[in-house]
Amino acid sequence: MWEFESEKNIFIVGHRGVRSLYPENTLASFRAALKLKLDLIEFDVHFTRDRHIVVCHDADIERTTNGSGLIRDMTLEELKRYDAGIKMSERFAGESIPTLEEVLELMVQADYQVLINVEIKEYDHLLVNQTIAMLKKYGMDQRSVIACFNAEIIDYVQRSYPKMRTQGFPRRCMEPNTDKDFIITEALYEKMFGMGIPLSMDIMDEEQLKEDVAMAKRYGIRPWLFCADDEESTRRAVWAGATNITCNDPYPALKYLSSQGLRDPHGVRFW
Question: Catalytic site residue 15?
Answer without folding.
Answer: yes
